[in-house]
Amino acid sequence: MLTFTGTLRFVSDLHLTAERAAVSERFAAFLADTARAKATALFILGDLFEYWIGDDDLADPFAARIAGLLRQLATSGTRIFFIAGNRDFLIGENFCRASDMIRLADMQKVGVGDTAILLMHGDTLCTDDVAYQVFRRTVRSAAWQREFLSRSLTERRAEVTDLRRRSQRAMEGKSAQIMDVNPDAVRATLAASGCIRLIHGHTHRPGREQLTLADGSAAERWVLSDWGEGRGDALEVDAGGIRRIDWSGR
Q: How far is it between the farthest Cα atoms of the chain?
């Protein structure tokens, strides 16, 4: 478990692209604010980018700028940690070095004060979406990633465009319930971790849910917002508790 004192911040699902300049500028302002607040650490819980096709794309000016902004925050004294999402799981050592951020496992326990918090992107909790879980296992395999990364950047961009198109069509045919987390999966994951607080993103359904685990203990689940037009938030945690910060229109 990673243990901290001071203030921690959490964001998820920024889905940054060069085409969404307003969101990128809001994120840059958020990073500057995080530095001014002297946060001990920033945790990015997946989908920093709309897609990431490999660290050899760091030569792209937009990717290089985002890496540079993150490094500026790290230089100011805030440690940066990253859990991969379903769009940017190919972020590797080169990007992490360029941005001075540390990649974590898919689940990470963090200690703040006397409370342990479980961090995730959140997609593995959507167990009712069987087709997605099969797809996730495929693209997270070493064989798939090796084959994909062996292609040219142009070929990879075309493949990602096609995957996103197919994903959008598939989502249109799924119910909202299937694409949300499974309550039993949430409770089982918390119970196995020994934590009573969970923070995740992925579902684009910001909120706070109070839970009762199988042993009768109380728990809570905090969900981060995605960042888009009129949307965007962060969570801030310290020894005094947890609070949501609105970054939807700054």
A: 53
